Every structure is written in structure tokens, then in C-alpha cells.
């Protein structure tokens, strides 16, 4: 969208091969502009999580480079937060929700009083006021996911990276969380990178969508989503642009999969 | 009493590799080297009662050629085997009965929960008074220390049986005897194996302890005599032998248990 | 089964034991098995509270101090062995070897080096309970969920905070299990080292009574030791259950869902 400044996040020629196996990622290059909602879609097992681990600095790519605001990234950056695919397992079962959400603040040495108030604020933002004293395993899956999102937001990151965050919640919760994410992105002017294998979800939420192939994952195309800033679960999904984009991406993925390698 | 009593830290994954064997050997060399240095030029050079590493090693090797060591080891293992047999029979009988019947459980559970956490050394003076420094002392101590692990595992094993299977057997109107012998006991076998492994480790410890504290025959008695005759190198050599014995013993039991579980496709 | 009938049944065996012992010791008059009231009288004379400060408290102090030292040394050592791969591969087997030495076997050599003073007893207890704590901690390092470890890295939690807040907490069920075994070893070593070489302590007094055929004192000592062994474990279990309430809660909620 905004090509004026340098991209917030840029991947150049990213490749990854795990020890002694075939390549998982093969020469992936993309750029994500500041304030953009960027989705990455691809079939299950394509290497989406691998890509995210590389672009957050959790794992070194075999080849290629990731830059955040023009600076090469080799380890996790304080400007970035991450919501994991296995969000349940990313929370500490021995700590209360309050302590879980406060952990990244403790990592930064934020004083206790400020921690408490920021945790309360961010929990209110995700619609979970007053659960600070509860433990993760006392909450439903959807609520745990909100906690994981709150923990990612509490540091006010510039870039929020999410790995299939809504894959294992029921349909209604899923819609709520989608709208919550979209609203938070607008409110905080955040850049969001979202991985999903649900094309509808990607179209509904994103400004741009990157489509990956499988075995190894290559970038097939990047699709612009001109659906405007305001999205609505009913109206947006009824728009013809929505249906067109959805069909186009599904077709692309099908073509890639049926092609002989 | 926990599982961790006899599992090993060293669990090479995907087969033992040269690197791991080398590093493990290096660990022992570092330890012996440090010991040798400490006792020759280092800060513990003139410590009474602490032999050098080389003296200890040569005494350990010497012991390998002494019939005394082997007959003591044999006696210890023999006592362990007898105590284990008693512990297994009594432990499984009581544990299965407690797991299977609420009445037996109510009858025996309280007393078992009171006696179980009491370390068996406590009973040593009492047993020594009754039995004297005899082989029976080692057997009795071993039994008292080892019976609980089998009992608890048997109890848990019977209680953990899939309720669906039990319902099925009820639906088929199997008599209780048959349910016990065809369903309950077979499915609890892996638990018995775990109980036996943990129990055996305790029993070995206590049979040796009965030798040191009460003069019951075996390895413990041998070290007691070496200490009383003031032969530090022999004392340390015997300690190394007991470690070797314990390690071998635990490895065999752990492997046996794993084999059994694998064979039965259990957990 | 109702609670009342459970309690009633639970009392059957203890009552039967006490009654049959009382009847038997009254009739047989065996020197080994003095009547119950005689034992209890001696128990009161000795332990309430004449010898408490001279023979009971010092032993318990040795126990506590030794175990504390073992925990202070064992947890960092275990953490290093569990987290640094080559260290674990190098010293894991050595540790396995030393842990396989029956704790009581450590008494003769350590008495030869250190003597029979209280400081020697503390060392014996510390050495014997160090191994289970260390091994359990090393094992506990494997319990941290990789996703959680990644999350900690992503939020740039420092290495020390990650160790304390993630690895040690995730491993705490295993570590506390190790400390419990350590406590058992410590108790055994406290009693055994007093039985073998000491000039005071409950273990010493009980063993002396056995040697001098003072069966009443021996019974009174055995009773106290059993009581202490039981209590030590019960106190530990209570503390552990408090510390691990999250763990039980989590397991219950997972099992029911
Ligand atoms: N640590 C690893 N070591 C070796 N291979 C791995 C590792 N992690 C992932 N892989 C392999 O890389 C490929 C891509 O895995 P990845 O988890 O990135 O896929 P994904 O697109 O996130 O899948 P999903 O949609 O199921 O989350 C898979 O074939 C997987 O087996
Ligand atoms: Mg994935």
C-alpha cells in the first residue's frame, strides 16, 4: 500500500533446510509495509511456521536475510511480538494470567506498579477484565488465546506476528477474535503478519496476501485486497470483490498443487 | 517413593555414539584426575583416611581378584533375591486386593499410608535385637523397604484399568474370579514391572545397609570390616564396587521393564 | 462406602495390632517385647522433653542443614547438566554412577575422612542427598515446553530469568520429587550415621540400647524415629502440594476436559 517509505519488514531470498532433509523454504522474498495487515497462506505442512520462525529471528535461515526497518534481524527484536500456533503451550501453567501477561514487561525491567496497570489495560482491551488471578488452565481455549494476544500486545509492539491463531476455536469465537485483531491493528497502527490456512479469513482480514506452495515452499503470488479499512463479518464477506479474491486464491493454490513438480 | 529412584540420567537417543562414549569416559577421567591431584599435591594431600585415586583404583582392581568380594556380592544378591521374592508376593497380593476391593482398601490403606513413608532403617535396631547379625536381618530389612513400591504400583495398576473393559466384563456376566485373572492381572503387569524395578533398588540399598549397620553378611559387612581395620583404600574400593553393582543392577532392571512394556505394547 | 464405615474399617488393623501386642507382651514376658505402657512411659521420660535439646534437635539440625546444602548445590549443578548438552553427556554418567552407590555405603569412607562430629554428619547428609536432587533437576530441564521456551526467547527474557521463570518452574514437579528422595536419603543417613559412629543422637541412643539389651529404651527410640520419619515426609508433602497446586489443578482440568 504505502510505497513511500522503506518497508517495515523485508525478506530477501529466504531459504531453510532442516538438518539432513529436503529444503522447506526456497528463495522467498517479500516486503511488508508499515501499518499493513499481511497474511501468508499455504497448505498444511508447507513451512509457514518455519517461515515465521525465521522472520522473527527465532531461527536462522539457511540462506537469505530478514530486515526490520532496514536493520538485519538475527535474534528476536523488542519491536516484534509473537502469538504462537500452540498458544496453550506458550502460556505458563504455573503462573496466573496476570503474571503470564506481565512476563514480557518483566523481561524489560518495567516496575511492578506500571506492570499491573498495563496488564489490566491490555486485558480489558481483549475483553478479559479481571481474570488476572486465574490460571491459564482454568480458562476456555478462546480465552487462553485472548491471553496470548494480550501478552503479545502488552509491550505495544510495532509488528505483531501470529501463527494460525484462530485455528482451534469455535466459529463464533473465531469471528470475535478476527474482529478484535483487526480493531487492535487499526487502533495501534500496528503491522500484522498473520499465518493461516483459511483463505476466507486471510481475505477478510488482510491488506495483502502472500500465497505459498508446498514442497518446498515458494512464493507463488502476492495478492492485494482492496476491501477498505472497515470490515464487517457479514457485509464484507458478501461483497463481490471478496468472492472474486477468494476464488482467485483458491484457484492459484489448486493449480500449484496439481502441477507436476 | 518416586519413579526417579532408579531411572538413569544417561539416555543416549538413537543408539550410543562414539562421541557420547568418549565424553562419558572423559567425565570419569576428569573426576579421577581431580581426585589424584587433590590427594597428591592439592589441598587434601595429607588428609587421613583419604587414599589417592591411584591407590583406590589399584585396590579396586585387587578386589576383583579376591574371592571375598565375589562371595560377598553373591551373598548380597542372594539376599536381595529372597527379599524381593517376598516383597513381590506380598506387595502384589495386598496391592491387587486393595485395588480391587473397596473393603480391603479401607482396611489396609490407612496402615499402609502410615508405615510407607517411614524409612526402613528405623526398624534396624528392633530387627537386629530379634534376628541378630544374620542373613535374615538383610532379608527382613530389604522386605520392609521394598514391599511398599510393589504394593503401591499394584494398587495403582488395578485402579487404572480402563473402566470400559471392566463394564464389558460385567456385561458379559464374568464371575469376579475370572475378571481378576483374565482382565485385571494381565493389564496391571506393566505396573508390577515398575514396582519391582523401584523395589529392587530399595532392597539392594537396605540389604547392604543391614550389613553395615547390623553386620548382616554381604557387601555391607565387608566394608564395615574394612573400615574397622582402618584400610581406607579398601573402603573406597568397595564403595566403587557398590556403585558398579548398583548401576548394573538398575540398568538391567530398567531394560527388563522397558522390554516388558514394549512387548505388551503398554505405555 | 460411607465415610464412617471407611474409618471404622481403617481402625481395625491398628487396633488389632495394638491389642494383640498388649495381650501377648503381658503373657509372654519376653525381654524383647516389653508391655506397651512401659514403652510409652520410657518414651515420655526420654523424649518429653529431657533429651530433646541434647539428642533430638542437633540431629534434626544436621538433617536440615545437610539437605539445604544439597539443594543449594544440587539445583544449579543439575541445571547445568540438563541445559548444557556436552556437560550432561560428560558428567551425566559419572553422576549416574555415584547415585547408584547406596547412600549408607557413603558413611564408612566419609567417617574415615571427616570423623564423627556434627560437621561431618552434615557433610555426609549433604553428599548423600545431593545426587538425587541434582539428577532430578537435570531431568526436570527436559520438562519445559519448547513452545514456551520459544515464547520466552521471542520476548527476550534473559538467560537467568528464563532459567528461573521457565526451566526451573516447569521442572519443579521433578525437582521436588528429587528433593523428596533426597529427604529420605538424608533421614536414612542421619539415623545410620548416628547408629554407626556417634556419641549422641536418637540413632545412637537406640542402637546403644539394643547393644546393651535395654529393649525398653530401644523401643522408645524406634517409636520416635518412626514418628520423625513419618512427620518429615508429611511436612514435605504438604509443602510440595502447596508449591505444585498449579500442577494438580492443570492435570485435573485436562483430565476432565
Ligand atoms: N525442527 C524441525 N526439524 C526438521 N523438520 C522440521 C522441523 N520443523 C518443521 N519441520 C518440517 O518442515 C516442514 C514444514 O513445517 P511447518 O511447521 O513450518 O509447516 P506449517 O506450514 O506451519 O504447517 P501447519 O499448517 O501444519 O502448521 C514439515 O515437513 C515439517 O516436517
Ligand atoms: Mg505451523
> How do the SSEs of chain A run, as a string of H and E?
EEEHEEEHHHHEHEHEEHH
Using the CA coordinates, give the radius of gyration of chain A: 18 Å
From the spread of the alpha carbons, the general shape of chain A counts as globular
Number of strands of chain A: 10
Structural class of chain B: mainly alpha
The run of helices and strands of chain B is: HHHHHHHHHH
Number of helices of chain A: 9
Protein name (chain A): ABC transporter ATP-binding protein
Pfam family, one (chain A): ABC_tran
Domain ABC transporter (chain A): 9-239
GO molecular function, one term (chain A): ATP hydrolysis activity
Question: What would your notes on this structure say?
Answer:
The complex is a heterotrimer of chains A (261), B (267) and C (257). Helix content of chain A is 38%, strand content 22%. Chain A is of the alpha/beta class and 261 residues long. Chain A has a domain at 1-79 and 193-261: P-loop containing nucleotide triphosphate hydrolases (Rossmann fold, 3-Layer(aba) Sandwich), CATH 3.40.50.300. Chain A has a 6-stranded mixed β-sheet, with helices on both faces. In chain A, strands 2-1-4-5 form a 4-stranded antiparallel β-sheet, covered by helices on one side. In chain A, helix 3 packs across helix 4, helix 3 (97-107) runs parallel beside helix 5 and helix 7 packs across helix 9. Chain A is globular and about 55 Å long. The model of chain A has no long low-confidence stretch (mean pLDDT 89). The longest helix of chain B has 39 residues, at 176-214. Chain B is globular and about 75 Å long. Chain B has a single domain (54-265), classed as MetI-like (MetI-like fold, Orthogonal Bundle), CATH 1.10.3720.10. In chain B, helix 5 (124-131) packs across helix 6 (135-159), helix 8 runs parallel beside helix 9 (219-228) and helix 8 runs antiparallel to helix 10 (232-264). Helix content of chain C is 83%, strand content 0%. The longest helix of chain C is centred in the first third of the chain and has 32 residues, at 52-83. The mean pLDDT of chain C is 89. Chain C has a single domain (51-251), classed as Orthogonal Bundle (MetI-like fold), CATH 1.10.3720. Chain C contains 12 helices and no strands. In chain C, helix 4 crosses helix 6 (118-140), helix 9 crosses helix 10 (202-211) and helix 9 (172-196) runs antiparallel to helix 11. Chains B and C meet through helix 1, helix 4, helix 5, helix 8 and helix 9 of B and helix 1, helix 4, helix 5, helix 6 and helix 9 of C. The structure holds adenosine-5'-triphosphate and magnesium ion (MG). Magnesium ion is lined by residues 48-49, 85, 163-164 of chain A. Chain B: Residues 73-257 form the ABC transmembrane type-1 domain.
Amino acid at each position: 500500500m504505502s510505497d513511500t517509505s522503506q518497508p517495515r519488514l523485508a525478506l530477501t531470498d529466504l531459504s531453510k533446510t532442516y538438518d539432513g532433509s529436503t529444503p522447506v523454504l526456497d528463495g522467498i522474498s517479500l516486503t511488508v509495509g508499515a501499518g499493513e495487515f499481511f497474511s501468508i497462506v499455504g497448505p498444511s505442512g508447507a513451512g509457514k511456521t518455519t517461515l515465521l520462525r525465521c522472520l522473527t529471528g527465532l531461527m536462522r535461515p539457511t540462506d537469505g536475510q530478514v530486515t526490520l526497518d532496514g536493520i538485519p534481524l538475527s535474534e528476536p527484536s523488542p519491536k516484534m511480538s509473537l502469538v504462537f500456533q500452540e498458544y496453550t503451550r506458550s502460556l505458563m501453567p504455573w503462573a496466573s494470567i496476570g503474571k503470564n501477561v506481565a512476563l514480557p514487561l518483566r523481561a524489560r525491567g518495567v516496575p511492578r506498579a506500571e506492570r499491573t496497570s498495563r496488564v489490566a489495560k491490555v486485558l480489558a482491551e481483549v475483553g478479559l477484565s479481571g481474570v488476572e488471578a486465574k490460571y491459564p488452565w482454568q480458562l476456555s481455549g478462546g480465552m487462553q488465546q485472548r491471553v496470548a494476544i494480550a501478552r503479545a500486545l502488552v509491550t505495544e509492539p510495532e509488528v505483531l506476528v501470529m501463527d494460525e491463531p484462530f485455528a482451534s476455536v469455535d466459529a463464533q469465537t473465531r469471528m470475535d477474535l478476527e474482529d478484535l485483531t483487526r480493531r487492535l491493528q487499526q487502533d495501534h497502527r500496528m503491522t500484522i503478519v498473520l499465518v493461516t490456512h483459511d483463505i476466507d479469513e486471510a481475505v477478510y482480514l488482510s491488506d495483502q496476501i502472500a500465497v505459498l506452495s508446498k514442497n518446498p515452499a515458494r512464493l507463488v503470488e502476492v495478492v492485494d485486497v482492496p476491501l477498505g479499512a472497515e470490515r464487517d463479518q457479514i457485509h464484507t464477506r458478501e461483497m463481490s470483490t471478496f468472492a472474486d479474491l477468494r476464488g482467485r486464491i483458491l484457484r492459484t493454490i489448486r493449480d500449484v498443487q496439481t502441477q507436476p513438480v | 517413593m518416586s519413579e526417579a529412584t532408579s531411572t538413569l540420567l544417561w539416555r543416549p537417543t538413537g543408539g550410543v555414539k562414539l562421541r557420547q562414549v568418549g565424553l562419558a569416559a572423559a567425565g570419569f577421567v576428569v573426576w579421577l584426575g581431580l581426585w589424584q591431584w587433590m590427594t597428591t599435591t592439592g589441598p587434601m594431600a595429607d588428609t587421613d583416611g583419604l587414599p589417592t585415586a591411584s591407590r583406590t583404583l589399584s585396590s579396586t582392581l585387587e578386589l576383583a581378584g579376591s574371592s571375598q568380594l565375589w562371595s560377598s556380592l553373591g551373598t548380597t544378591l542372594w539376599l536381595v533375591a529372597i527379599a524381593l521374592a517376598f516383597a513381590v508376593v506380598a506387595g502384589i497380593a495386598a496391592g491387587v486386593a486393595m485395588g480391587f476391593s473397596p473393603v480391603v482398601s479401607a482396611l489396609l490403606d490407612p496402615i499402609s499410608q502410615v508405615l510407607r513413608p517411614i524409612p526402613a532403617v528405623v526398624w534396624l535396631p528392633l530387627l537386629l535385637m530379634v534376628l541378630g547379625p544374620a542373613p535374615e536381618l538383610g532379608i527382613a530389612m530389604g522386605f520392609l523397604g521394598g514391599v511398599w513400591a510393589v504394593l503401591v504400583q499394584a494398587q495403582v495398576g488395578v485402579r487404572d484399568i480402563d473402566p470400559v473393559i471392566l463394564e464389558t466384563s460385567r456385561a458379559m456376566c464374568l464371575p469376579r474370579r475370572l475378571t481378576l485373572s483374565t482382565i485385571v492381572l494381565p493389564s496391571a503387569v506393566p505396573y508390577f514391572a515398575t514396582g519391582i524395578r523401584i523395589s529392587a533398588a530399595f532392597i539392594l540399598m537396605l540389604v547392604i545397609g543391614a550389613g553395615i549397620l547390623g553386620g548382616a553378611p554381604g557387601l555391607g559387612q565387608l566394608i564395615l570390616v574394612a573400615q574397622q581395620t582402618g584400610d581406607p583404600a579398601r573402603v573406597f574400593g568397595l564403595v566403587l564396587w557398590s556403585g558398579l553393582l548398583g548401576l548394573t543392577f538398575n540398568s538391567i532392571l530398567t531394560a527388563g521393564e522397558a522390554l516388558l512394556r514394549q512387548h505388551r505394547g503398554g505405555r | 462406602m460411607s465415610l464412617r464405615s471407611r474409618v471404622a474399617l481403617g481402625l481395625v488393623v491398628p487396633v488389632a495390632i495394638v491389642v494383640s501386642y498388649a495381650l501377648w507382651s503381658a503373657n509372654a514376658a519376653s525381654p524383647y517385647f516389653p508391655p506397651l505402657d512401659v514403652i510409652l512411659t520410657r518414651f515420655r521420660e526420654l523424649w518429653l522433653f529431657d533429651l530433646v535439646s541434647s539428642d533430638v534437635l542437633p540431629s534434626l539440625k544436621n538433617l536440615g542443614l545437610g539437605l539445604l546444602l544439597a539443594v543449594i548445590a544440587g539445583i544449579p549443578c543439575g541445571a547445568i547438566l540438563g541445559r548444557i548438552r556436552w556437560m550432561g553427556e560428560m558428567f551425566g554418567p559419572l553422576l549416574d554412577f555415584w547415585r547408584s552407590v547406596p547412600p549408607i555405603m557413603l558413611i564408612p569412607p566419609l567417617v574415615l575422612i571427616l570423623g564423627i562430629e556434627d560437621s561431618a554428619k552434615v557433610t555426609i547428609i549433604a553428599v548423600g542427598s545431593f545426587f538425587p536432587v541434582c539428577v532430578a533437576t537435570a531431568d526436570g530441564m527436559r520438562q519445559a515446553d519448547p513452545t514456551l521456551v520459544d515464547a520466552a526467547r521471542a520476548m527476550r527474557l534473559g538467560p537467568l530469568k528464563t532459567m528461573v521463570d521457565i526451566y526451573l518452574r516447569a521442572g519443579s514437579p521433578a525437582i521436588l520429587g528429587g528433593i523428596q528422595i533426597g529427604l529420605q536419603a538424608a533421614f536414612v543417613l542421619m539415623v545410620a550415621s548416628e547408629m554407626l559412629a556417634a556419641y549422641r543422637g536418637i540413632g545412637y541412643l537406640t542402637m546403644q540400647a539394643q547393644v546393651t539389651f535395654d529393649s525398653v529404651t530401644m523401643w522408645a527410640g524406634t517409636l520416635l524415629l518412626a514418628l520423625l520419619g513419618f512427620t518429615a515426609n508429611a511436612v514435605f508433602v504438604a509443602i510440595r502440594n502447596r508449591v505444585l497446586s498449579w500442577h494438580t489443578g492443570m492435570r485435573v482440568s485436562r483430565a476432565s476436559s
